[in-house]
Amino acid sequence: MKPKTLFDKIWDSHVVRSIADGPDVLYIDRHYIHEVTSPQAFNGLKERGIPVFRPAKTLATADHNIPTKDQHLQIRDELSRNQVEKLNENCLKYGIELFGLNHSKNGIVHVIGPELGYTLPGMTIVCGDSHTSTHGAFGTIAFGVGTTEVEMVLATQCILQPKPKKMKITVNGNLHKGVTSKDIIMHIISEISASGATGYFVEYCGSAIKSLSMEARMTICNMSIEMGARGGLIAPDEITFEYLRELPSIPGIDNINVSISDWKKLGSDPEAIFDRELEFKADSIKPMITYGTNPGMGMAIDGSIPLSDVKNGKASVSFIKSLDYMGFKPGMKLLGHQVDYVFIGSCTNGRIEDFRAFAQIIKGRKKAANVTALIVPGSKKVEEQLASEGLLETFKNAGFEVRQPGCSSCLAMNDDKIPAGKYAVSTSNRNFEGRQGPGARTLLASPLTAAAAAITGVITDPRNYISEKIS
Q1: Domains, the chain, ranges and CATH?
Q2: CA torsion sign, 201 to 207 to 213 to 216?
Q3: Angstrom distance (rounded) from CA 421 to CA 426
Q4: Per-residue pLDDT reduced to its tens digit, 183-211
Q5: Which end of the chain is more exposed for a tag (fewer CB within 10 A), N or C?
C-alpha cells in the first residue's frame, strides 16, 4: 500500500465523491458556527425551504462582536444585538446546540470546541472563520469557509473542496528561555512570508513540536492561515490523549480508551511524500514581535527592522507604506518604543496557559501608568480558572482589569477598539491596517512579551523578567 500522510488518511476517508477534474465532496464531522457568518446561511435555507440536515453535528456560540463588559445587560450596538438574537432564533428553530451569551459554556468558538470535547482526532471540521485551523492541533483537518459554504454544510453536512497540496514543517531542538509556541509560528511566518504556504495544508513535526502542550499546539495551528496555508495539523500523541482523558466528558464517547486505540493509528507513514518540506532549529528562535501590517513582517525582539522586504535590497512600495502606517523606519530597533495598549486574549492566546504565562511576569509588579490593558479570557471556563487559580487577584493587585469572554480587540467588532495612532502589543493573530480599530497600530507578540510591555510601558524583551521556559 502506498505510504500516506496524516492529511491524506483523514481526507481520503471523508471523500463522499470525487468530481472528475473538479473538487471532492467532503463529509464534515463537526461544524462550528457563530453570530457573524451564520445569519446569511440560515436565510438561504429559509428561502429554499430546506432544513439543517444533521443539526447534532453543528455547535454554535456567540463570540465575535459581543461586549466584554456588562454582558448581563442588553447589547447596546444594534447590529451586534441583532446578530446575536438571530443566532438564538436560528438555533432554536433548527435544533442546534447553542452556547450563547451568558451561557456557562460560552466562549470563543475555537477555544470552547476543544475544551468541551467537541474537537477530536481524525475529524474534518469547518467554521465560517479563518482560524478554524486551530483545531488541527488534535490531528484534524480543520479550515475556515465562507458563508455560502456554511449554508452548504448546514444543508448537506458536506462541502465541495479541492484537495490542497501538503507541506511538512519540522522544528527540532530545544526552545530557549522566554520562547513560546507563539514565537515559533511567528518565526516560521517571518521566514517564509505571509503567502509562503499558499495552497498547502501544513503538518508540523519535530521534537520541539512534540514537546508542546495542547494549548501551545493550538497556537501553532491557529496561525497557519497567516502564512497562506489552508490549515495546519499535528499528529495526535500521548500529550493529546492525556488532554482528552482529563476532560470531564466527551460528547458521543463513552470509553475514551477505545477511541484512543483508534487515534493512535493517526500519523503520517515514514515514507509518505509531501509536496514541500521545511526545517527549522528551535534554538535559533528568539521572542518575536511584528513591525508591519501583515504577520510575515516579524523579527526577533532584540533585532532591527529590515532595510528591505526583497532580496535585492530594494524596498517595495508596500513595504514602505506599511512602515509609514506603523510610524517606523527601516533599520529601526523596537526595544524601548513606547506602547499604549496591551491585549491578551483571542483564539490564538486566550487559554489558561496564556494567562499563567502572563501572570508569571506580572506577579508582584504593577501595570505601567501609560498602558491600557485589555485582558480577555477565551471562555467562561477560562474565566473560572482565572478565579480559582488566584490569577484574578494577581492581575487586580498589579492594576489590571479582567474583561468577560469574547473575541474582543482581536478584530474590534465590539467596543474594544485601539484608538487611531496608538500602539498595541497584542497576543492575537493579525496586524492588518485597522484590524484592532481604524488607524490602530498592532504589534503581534506572545503573552510573555505582552506582559513585559504591560509593566514597563515600552517594548521589552521578556527574557529579562523570567527564570524558566514556558510553552
Answers
A1: 6-277 (3.30.499.10), 289-464 (3.30.499.10)
A2: negative
A3: 15
A4: 999 999 999 999 999 999 999 999 999 99
A5: N
- Across 437-445, average pLDDT: 98
Cell digits of residue 115? 475544551
User: What is the helix (H) or strand (E) element at residue 190, kind and residue range?
Assistant: helix 181-192
Percent of the chain beyond pLDDT 70?
Answer: 98
All 3 cell numbers of residue 93?
Answer: 428553530
Listed in sequence order, the residues at least 6 apart from 124 whose beta carbon sits closer than 8 Å to its beta carbon are: 10, 11, 14, 26, 27, 28, 29, 30, 140, 141, 142
Q: Which residues contact 263 (CB under 8 A, 6 or more apart)?
A: 120, 121, 122, 139, 236, 240, 241
**Closest to 431 (Cα-Cα) out of 226, 179, 181:** 226
Question: What is the C-alpha to C-alpha distance for residues 64 and 35, in angstroms, rounded to an integer?
Answer: 7
The C-alpha angle with vertex 279 and arms to 278 and 284, in degrees rounded to 5, equals 135
pLDDT tens, position by position, 254-270:
899 999 999 999 999 99
Task: Read off the pTM.
Answer: 0.97
Q: What is the pLDDT of residue 468?
A: 59
E-assigned strand segments in 231-304? 231-233, 276-281, 288-290, 298-300
Pull the grid cell for residue 429.
493573530
pLDDT of residue 176: 96
